[in-house]
Queue: 2 jobs
Job 1
Amino acid sequence: MAGKKVGVLALQGDVSEHVNAFSTALGGGGEVVEVRSAADLAGCDALAIPGGESTTIARLIAEKGMRDAILSFEGGIFATCAGMVLVASTIDDARVEPLGIVDIAVERNAFGRQRDSFEADIEVTGLASPFHAVFIRAPIAAAAGPGVEVLAEIPRGIVAVRQGKHIALSFHPELSGDLRLHRLFLERL
Ligand code: GLN
């Protein structure tokens, strides 16, 4: 994976966990940078959009004039939780303007208050054994378009998808110490 430059959108959310996870996954061969402006994104091979609050991240993307740069970005996008909400083509919450990068319809906070957070071992296409997934006020994809490969689904709905270079996840792979999904993503850049 040497030589890849991964940007982590650093406007709000669990930025440092993503920086650490990608730094480890790259094994010192690549570079991880925090992205706070359109200029920071130039030269990146990938952009991680972290978990956090999608309403806040969407507002900051707009305020900083980064929307067009993200939409025209040619690298892969690794979107987790709030990031999955942002990259979707439709969102069940009018306050968050979808980027429309991954053709999924998402529902925010799909697990309700009593199950705001939970962990589960899930089967993921491409991984030889289950992945321990940490869900925190997680969204779900209720539907995925024809160009989208569903990587994981639980009874409530779709929780992991891939579209071209992009991967979107309902859960937080940067929190479970298992970097197989990061590697799966980096392999396709
Ligand atoms: N519920 C949050 C949102 O929709 C996402 C939560 C998270 O990223 N852990 O923005």
Job 2
Amino acid sequence: MPKLGVNIDHVATLRQARKGIDPEPVFAAFICESAGADSIVVHLREDRRHIQDSDLHALRQTVKTRLNMEMSIASEIVDIACKLKPDQSTLVPEKRQELTTEGGLNVFKNFKKIKTALEKLGRHGIKVSLFIDPDKKQIDAAKKIGAKIVELHTGRYADAKSQEEQEKYFQELKSAVSYAKSKRLIVCVGHGLNYSNVARVAKLKGIQELNIGYSIVCRAVLVGLEHAVQEMKALIG
Ligand code: PXP
């Protein structure tokens, strides 16, 4: 069975809406781990729109499974990771104006910069994964650069507007997974996976871990609402 990494960025998004202390990502991580999450994933964005440096430090102290820090290759962020020592760093492209990570790293084009970040993190004992599109050229470049782990971006499959399009991108993902496996890379997948599109992907042979965030946090809000209202009603009563 593939592993599940739970991305809790959007627990922090909710907290940042009021800039208060609730909901606390450390508590969320604890619940995810108790429910079976195999790792906790957080993205320290350069604009700190959700996860803050203090969250990372607290998570480093409390996460008992594995802490996977998503991050850009900006030197300020690489330095933070080297000090913090998450179990894994997942290098992603980052644009300030994007709502979420829109595509994979162009390892081909940014070979030198990515190699520098990868090697520095490696020297600090951190495993490094490269978030790339399900594309042979990028897989080849990831292998060439010395990566041991890749995470294939499932956004094209997840965001497909028709069944035909979804099928096309599913086949693209499937062949990328087996190509990356043939190159002896550890293969993870993620982005846009939800309760209706995950099953097919999870069945693909050779996937080590699925990293899922937004849909789980959305579902948590809805399935938790009834209980939350009942608790408040009881207090008022
Ligand atoms: N994997 C990576 C590398 C990501 O950047 C993200 C989004 O932060 C995810 C997985 C999770 O995507 P989603 O929140 O759409 O499930």
